[in-house]
Amino acid sequence: MKIRAIIFICVLLTVIVISCQSEEQLDFKRYYSSGSLVYKQKCQNCHGANGEGLTSLVPPLTDSDYLKKNKAVLACMVKYGIKETIITINGKGYEGAMPPTDLAPVEIAQVLTYLSNSFGNHMGTITSDTVSKDLETCK
Amino acid sequence: MRKLAILVLIVVLYTACKSGGDKQTLPIFGNRDAVTKTVNGKQVTDTVYQTIPSFKFVNQYGDTITDKSLKGDIYVADFFFTTCPSICPIMHRNMLKVYNEFKRESDFKIISHTIDPKHDTVPVLKKYADKLGIAGNAWWLLQGKKEETYTLGEKSYLVAVKQDDGTPGGFVHQGWFVLVDKQKRIRGYYDGTVDADVAKLINDIKTLRAETDVEIAQ
């Protein structure tokens, strides 16, 4: 009898905890898990499974400062690519181009949420609305 | 006493299994012909295997590289181009594993043929090599006439290579790493985009290096 009561309370507590997750947290999880799939398809070849990049050819995605500083232009970079230029990541210069993608704004939001909360980065959710807004200001 | 007997039995069984299953040889790919000739008055039938024909290219240092430059070497060949947005980065991420494993061996080489020689000139290849972090002569990036590279790929290495402006980057190619032995026969194909295949390649190179020069009966 006692054991049953304990199990019941445990189940109840679990249900309460799960349902108490805020809408925001759920959103984050949805974005993050979809983003990991987009990352595998579109980014991982060059940037690596752990965002480590490839020697001096491809920059890593582990520079949290760079990502924070350029948060508003990340969507443009993913959509339109980067033309031949030198960018400095983790204090090291990388020269080259990144190809554009045909991702929808929501997919860009997902993949950005994934990579900006993986590989040692913690930037929270980047929403589809934010991405749509950022895309209007692409140069 | 009994424990000892069991222990001995285990050791015997283990070594028996080991010596039986250890010997490996790699298959030989490509077309083959049987040629019968007379040696010392006796008829001898030999199998003639398809081999990689002679070629002439330039490497990332501007040196001329021919089939003779690879004499006595086991090598791995692939096809790529430096501006490739699709599978090349992962191919060369994986090829780096092979390079790092064998770069100090004097009888081993990697050759990567560019299929976009117009863009991938010698200085472009040198820059790519530097960025990839490769030096010395264990890994050559080869540039030559486009037709010659394509013919070599399709007719000799038996991999598909072609130009197609409709695909990302403008070229179609497959991610095969082709293993070639000292007699210039193809001994293995490995998908350069698949980790498990690359691990097998590294293993097979070790097997091949241990192989004696005695002809393999097939």
Describe the protein in words:
The complex is a heterodimer of chains A (about 140) and B (about 220). Chain A is mainly alpha-helical. Chain A has a single domain, classed as Cytochrome c-like domain (Cytochrome Bc1 Complex, Chain D, domain 2, Orthogonal Bundle), CATH 1.10.760.10. Chain A has seven helices and two strands. Chain A has helices at about 1-20, 25-40, 45, 65-70, 75-80, 105-115, 130-135, and strands spanning about 80-90, 90-100. In chain A, strands 1-2 form a two-stranded antiparallel ribbon. In chain A, strand 1 and strand 2 (about 90-100) form a beta hairpin. In chain A, helix 5 (about 75-80) packs across helix 6 (about 105-115) and helix 5 (about 75-80) crosses helix 7 (about 130-135). The longest helix of chain A has 20 residues, at about 25-40. Chain A starts with a helix and ends with a helix. With about 220 residues, chain B is of the alpha+beta class. Chain B has one domain: Glutaredoxin, CATH 3.40.30.10. Chain B has helices at about 1-20, 90-100, 120-130, 145-155, 195-210, and strands at about 30-40, 40-50, 55-60, 65, 75-80, 110-115, 140, 160-165, 170-175, 175-180, 185-190. Chain B has a five-stranded mixed β-sheet with strand order 7-6-5-10-11. In chain B, strands 1-2 form a two-stranded antiparallel sheet. In chain B, helix 2 (about 90-100) packs parallel to helix 5 (about 195-210). The longest helix of chain B is centred in the first third of the chain and has 20 residues, at about 1-20. The interface between A and B is medium-sized, with 12 and 17 residues.
